[in-house]
């Protein structure tokens, strides 16, 4: 469940974290049972309420940007075209809040 993820999970190095190929999903790497939408959905659908038992995964990606990106007064747009879900972006461990939780 999302509530079980510690707030500090991204504030430290993750030396014991597993590596998965992306784009992909954790079910295809053995971390949960795959969900097929042509059969009964395994989670009760009751919008806008989210069930307590809600499969949750956390992904971390580290990348470097050119020094010129860090110049004051520059505007940068980070696009994420994956469907659904909530994303939290942190740059140098500072939270960046998107205009919308999903794109």
UniProtKB/TrEMBL annotation:
Transmembrane segments: none annotated. Belongs to the glycosyl hydrolase 2 family. Residues 1-81 form the Glycosyl hydrolases family 2 sugar binding domain. The keyword Metal-binding does not apply. It comes from human gut metagenome. This is beta-galactosidase. Keywords: Glycosidase, Hydrolase. It catalyses: Hydrolysis of terminal non-reducing beta-D-galactose residues in beta-D-galactosides.
């Amino acid at each position: 469940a999302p509530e079980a993820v510690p707030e500090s999970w991204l504030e430290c190095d993750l030396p014991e974290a597993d590596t998965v190929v992306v784009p992909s999903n954790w079910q295809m790497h053995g971390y949960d049972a795959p969900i097929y939408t042509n059969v009964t959905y395994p989670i009760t659908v009751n919008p806008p309420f989210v069930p307590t038992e809600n499969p949750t995964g956390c992904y971390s990606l580290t990348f470097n940007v050119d020094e010129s990106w860090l110049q004051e007064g520059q505007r940068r747009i980070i696009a994420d075209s994956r469907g659904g879900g909530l994303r939290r972006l942190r740059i140098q461990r500072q939270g960046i809040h998107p205009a919308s939780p999903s794109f």
